[in-house]
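Blinded run. Sample ID left blank on purpose so nobody reads anything into the name before looking at the predicted structure. Input follows.
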Amino acid sequence: MSIISSIFYWFLDLHIFFQIVIGIVLLAVVYGIIDEVFGLSRKEAIKKITKKYGISEEQLKEIVEEVGRKYPKDLLNNKSKSTIEKIDETICPSCNTVGSFEYDITNLSTARFIGRKDFKEEDGITRNMEVFERTRYNVYHCNQCNYKKEIEGGKSKYTPKEIAEEGYRCPKCNERETVYLKDVKQLERYASNKEVEETTSRGTKTRYIKVMKSLEEETYCCHNCDFVSLATVTRDLD
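Blinded prediction complete.
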């Protein structure tokens, strides 16, 4: 203990310049020891991962960066588990090659007719239209054995009117911005009863009034294929 105290007081008696120099040297030595100890452990951790997948360190670095992680940092910190899971996702289910199974940016979706439905709009307009359901898929493929996998990514329902106005894909040929409103034809006019509610001093009263209605037919077509869809439109004229 006396030796340590002597060294400590000797250090305090030194000129400030020499205290700074000795301090820097000691810090460098400590840092070198720490770096050597943890550097070896890092190398061992990386070595275990490369051995697990049967790849080189250079290949591991490339795969880690491809999945959007930092190498080797994210293999050694609290993100290591999720990073390993990301690497596992790149293994082809068919040929088992690491780093070969990747997302295909190609958009894949299919559409099917599911029925007709009345859609009530403002101003007494009712459209009876076909409804289509489009299923989207996320596509993955292997760059080594050409294995492909399609994973369902979601479903959406559209009418021909929405497809034409928003430029969605044609239900038949799958092309964008090809469906359009080709024709509107008036079929007939007729008298009908309309239910209305009136508020009186005694409450709400329901009664029926005579109104004139028109029946129209809208034709939706595709510029690219022979897709055709008819919608009937009922309008209140009064």
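Unblinding after everyone has recorded impressions. The chain has a mean pLDDT of 84.
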